[in-house]
Amino acid sequence: MNVVDVLNHFNVDFQEYSASASAKCISVNCPFCPSGDTGKHLGIFRDKGNFSCYKCGERGGLFKYIREVKGITWSQFEAFTGTKQYTGESILENVKKIFEKPEEISTAINPDINIVGLVPADHAKYKAVLRFIEERRFDYTLLAFFKTQWCLSGPWMNRLIIPLPPPYITKKPLCYAARSLSPRNDPRWLFTEDSRHHNILYYNNHPKNNWKRLTIVEGIFDAWAIPDLAVCIFGTELSPTQLLSLQKDFGAQNIPVRIILDGDAPVKAHKLKEKLSSFFSSIEVIYLESNQDVSSCWANRERMDLFNV
Fold it and tell me: Helix (H, G, I), strand (E, B), or coil: what is residue 79?
């Protein structure tokens, strides 16, 4: 899907920049800013079509934006783009369609984990999923982009199933992560038994796109909250395999690095900076409050400076 072609087709006013720092985004008016200031504060990423407003913090997918400014329906969007990921006019309808369709997640990594099943069309579960998304200020298009699925039976019941690494890194996942929808479930995250996630770098965007900076975070949702390039390292320490992978991905680039770990890990963040200092010349550690992490800052509209591109 060519984002510029889609914007032209629906007569959306936009502005393109040639400077390397801005070329990845297309600037458009923001219809979500509560102040009524509709200046071109909102950037649409060329590669995925997702958007982020650096002024009000609103984020989402291309359809959400065009629907807001032009009032189009999903059928009109699908007719031009050929996108087949969604089948309804709203999040609720999209989730309902997915729930009513049998969804199978590959068990090739670990056949002992049963993550195959039908999801019943239960209204309470629609609400649970929608509430989970809205509380984190994530758009449903984001979950679909990362090929997130739902498991409503077996040991991973009522969890989001996330392939690792993401689909644009490799077509065949090495393992899976499972995130509980309920805060009462402990642990919140589960991984396949033979999981190699501590040897995986989970990028929220493809790292080969000449990004302006790299942000290192602890968790998957932390990486999802960052609008440009971020990498989740699944904790506060880099394994030797992860360190070698970072060197391979960015060794020839002088890319600035930000380290933003959870607020309760300032010492770990400093040690991580020391470990990376041999590979990167510009490293900034950003410290959060003890009760904060990147995804909670995004959800609660705190420390919005973290999300400026």
Answer: helix
* β partners of residue 53: 42
Task: Give the C-alpha separation, 163 to 177, whole Å.
Answer: 6
Q: How crowded is the C-beta side of 2, counted as CA atoms within 13 Å? A: 4
Tell me the per-residue pLDDT of 114-166, one tens digit each, with 9 for 90 and over. Answer: 333 333 445 456 677 778 888 899 876 777 788 888 776 667 777 888 889 88
Asked which of 63, 81, 99 is the last residue of a domain, the reply is 81
Amino acid at 285: V
Residue range 86-125, pLDDT digits in tens: 333 343 444 344 334 434 434 333 333 333 333 344 545 6
* pTM of the predicted protein model: 0.65
Provide the token pair at 50.
């997702």
Cis before 165 (ω within 30):
yes
Q: Are the C-beta atoms of residues 152 and 125 closer than 8 Å to each other?
A: yes
Local structure of residue 23 (DSSP, 8 states): T
Residues 6 or more apart in contact with residue 103 via CB below 8 angstroms: 117, 119, 149, 150
**Type of residue at 74:** W
Question: Residue 38: which domain range?
Answer: 3-81
Q: Rounded CA gap, 174 and 8, in Å?
A: 39
**Residue 262 CB partners (closer than 8 Å, separation 6+):** 218, 236, 288, 292, 293, 294
Tokens 């309760």 correspond to what residue? 264
- Tally of domains in the chain: 3
Do 206 and 188 belong to one domain? no
pLDDT tens track for 74-85: 788 888 887 654
